Each structure stands twice: as C-alpha cells, then as structure tokens.
C-alpha cells in the first residue's frame, strides 16, 4: 500500500465503488446467464445520427468546441425541449452540453454545494447523487417514498426542509424514476413546487428518461419552477446513445455560467463529433425515441404478466425501462442474498433493491432494455425458481 494513501481526500476514502457495477461484473462470469441489470438500451443508435458523426470526422471537425457546446447543438436542443416539454431556454446562455447526464449531476452539485450543506434525496433512486454529494463534503437527507407509491409527498418534503432549513441547498428529483419506473404528473410537481418556492434552494431535476414516458406527456419541473430548477437531459436513452456521452444541463443563465466553470475545468468540452451526432438527433430525430418506447412498453407488459405469475408485485411503471419488483414473501427478503441466489440457481441477473437507498430492501430492479427473447427466457427461469424455492421453504 502506498504510504500516501492516508493523505487522500477523506471524502474519497470514505466512498466505496459502485455496488451495481461490481455485482454486474461478478455475475457476468456465470455461464448462460441472462443479464437484466444495467440501464443500457439494446437498440442501435439511429443510422442518420451515426452518419452525422462520420461526416463530422470526415470534415476534420477534431478541435475543441466552445466549452458550453457547439451553438448548433444548443439551438437544436433548445428547440427539442421547447417542442417536447414547453421549456424555454436561450441556447446562448441557459444550456450547457455535458459529457452525459452523469457529468451534469457532478458539475451542478459541485458548483452549488459547500461543506456542511445538505441535499434532500427521495429514495429509492439512482444512487450516483449520493457519493457526489458526499464528495463535496455535504450530507444526503433521505426521504423513503416506498409508502407513498414511490412519489415524494409535499408533506414529507416540507418536513425535511424545515428540519434542515439552516443547511439545505438542493432537492433531487429523478423522473421517470430509476429504479421504479414511476413518474410525476403535473399536479404532483405543482404541489412540490409550492413547497420549494418558499425557500432559496435548487431543484436538480434529472429527466434523462423523459422520452420513455408511456402514458400521457412528460411534464418537466423546469416548466413549473424555472427560476429554481436545473433540468438534466440528453440523448443517452432517447436515442440509444449511452456511449456517446452527451448530456444537457439547463437553467437560469447566471447559474449555468457558474456551473460552466466547474464543467470547463473538469472536461474542457464534450467530444466534437459526438456533439454533431447529438445535433442531428435533436434536429432530425425528434421522434426516434417513440419507436423504441413502443417496444419497451410491450416488453414491460410481458414482464409484468410473467412476474405476477411468479408472485412478484411491482410499482406502477409508467416510464424508463425498469420494473421495481417486490420479492414474494415466501422468498429471501434480503435483496443481495436473493439476487446472488437467483443468479447462481436460475441464471438470471437483476439488481438488489437495497442498492437504491432506503425503501429499496425487499425489492429487485429488473431492466427490460433487453431482447424479448432474453426476457421470455428470464421469466420462465424466475417462475421455476420461485416455485422451487417456495416449496423448499415450506418443507
């Protein structure tokens, strides 16, 4: 061990690597396993989007762009957000192109947090917000939403803000939600906005799955409380472009300018040809996500029906491509032990619900961003496993 290890930043030393990635890598060694773990679309990036990147390369567009992103991409993104979600952002000053929504989370939290601040994080939720909060010397305040249909209630939010009113800096929202697939309706958001508007705090609204909303139209928090909301979006899920690493961070111009400093010092600018591809996606592929959404919805329904026959119940998934399934009472309620056992005996890999914070224990997250063939195979294996384990428990 290096003699300098004890001189590392204490917030870094206190962190542990991603449990989800570690679990996914470990079970990948099991032969013939069906992996329903990561949020990775199984679709290919649309051909017209790939062609735009190729043209960019052939045109020798290999230099740094404006740190905020090319103006062409920002204008295309502004129009996309306006047409889709009634968001009104000036491309010159209110949109920042990031390396995926992940960097948007990192840069925004790093820019707004001081040591000792607190951030309200409703759980279960995509866990990345937690270590980034801690890296900045701030403290996450968890609100378990499992008793409220996985929706943050205004009453619980108000109580959490009041209990931490001297330190609270931000509230995180993620919808459609990873891992539950639950999303917020306009009425839900308006009630939350009425609470938040009483305080000088930010809303970090991660809406990366906005195009994968199955019933009704996605409503953005940015359209309801624009002066306090930072909206995160991008092309990763809407256009099957996870590896291209292009995200968007949108909000008040003066706030975006300050966050842009962190972004600039961290990455300089996003990859040039990837920005060209994203511009094409927004300009000429505005509805590309609809084709994928229809397939995802069919897969969701297939999985819901199959899991119900195995004794699982699920949150009401109206978006993203995940089911958050309650482990049947006849099976092991420790989600980590359950998932390891399922992987070894049934050769199906899903993610333990405990990975997503308070309210997640006793659940598993199942991704249906997989082929119908794999889902059908996984359903049969889960049904057999549940029946055999229930009999074994009874004995």
Automatic annotation (TrEMBL):
Aminotransferase class I/classII large domain: residues covered? 32-382
List the GO molecular function terms. transaminase activity
Cofactor (UniProt) = pyridoxal 5'-phosphate
Q: Which domain of life is it from?
A: Bacteria
Residue spans crossing the bilayer: none
Q: SUPFAM superfamilies under this entry?
A: PLP-dependent transferases
Using the UniProt record, name the top-level EC class of this enzyme in a single word: transferase
CDD domains, alphabetized: AAT_like
Q: Which PROSITE patterns match?
A: AA_TRANSFER_CLASS_1 (PS00105)
Protein's UniProt keywords contain Transferase: yes
The record's listing under InterPro entries reads: Aminotransferase_I/II_large (IPR004839), AspAT/PAT-like (IPR050596), NHTrfase_class1_PyrdxlP-BS (IPR004838), PyrdxlP-dep_Trfase (IPR015424), PyrdxlP-dep_Trfase_major (IPR015421), PyrdxlP-dep_Trfase_small (IPR015422)
- Record's keyword terms, sorted: Aminotransferase, Pyridoxal phosphate, Transferase
Family affiliation: Belongs to the class-I pyridoxal-phosphate-dependent aminotransferase family.
Q: What is this protein called?
A: Aminotransferase
